[in-house]
Write a structure and sequence with these properties.
Blueprint lengths: L3 E9 L4 H14 L3 E7 L8 E9 L12 E6 L2 H6 L4 E10 L19 H6 L4 E5 L1 H8 L5 H10 L6 H11 L2 H16 L4
Parallel strand pairs: 1-4, 4-5, 5-6
Antiparallel strand pairs: 1-3, 2-3
Helix pairs in contact: 1-6, 4-5, 4-7, 5-7
Amino acid sequence: MGEVTNIAIAGVGGQGIILASDVLAQAAICAGYDVKKNEVHGMAQRGGAVVSEVRFGRRVRSPLIPDGEVDVLLALEMLEGLRHLHRLRPEGVVIADELRIRPAVRPPGAPGYPEDVVDRLRSLGHRLVLIPAAELARGAGNARAANTVLMGAMSRHLQLPEDAWQRSLRMCLRPSLLEVNMRAFGLGRQTQDI
């Protein structure tokens, strides 16, 4: 990764994208980096697309990541990952939940959810890490901690010390959610790249 590390987190409303970006940004701050962050909520309250970008480094001048400059794309839903694939740099990595959220309503003539979404994610040759995040989160005690499982997996691809992540989780989560999210983060950190 270059002087500035660029992370895009994509998914649908309600998956914890904003919380994930808050935890990532705080971990980078705890590690002593300059951090910039931005978010696009769209129709998030209705299950619409949400994307958040976090940039960190010695000096970061803008919160916006140019297309083709994303180092890690964290996809909380596979199709949303596919929609942002063009944003990755050639040596970038996609870390994605195996989750597929099919739209509740599809207008006439609109394309359906692609059955070959995994093949499409692999098609451009980027490194792809697929994780059963919801399943692992259930094992940690709460399926809603899938975002934290994915952050644990992502933490192995970033040069942020583990204690920065631990401090960030303590700072960003309510005490009642901390224990299950710490377990979820640990399970994600233990996953092996496929």
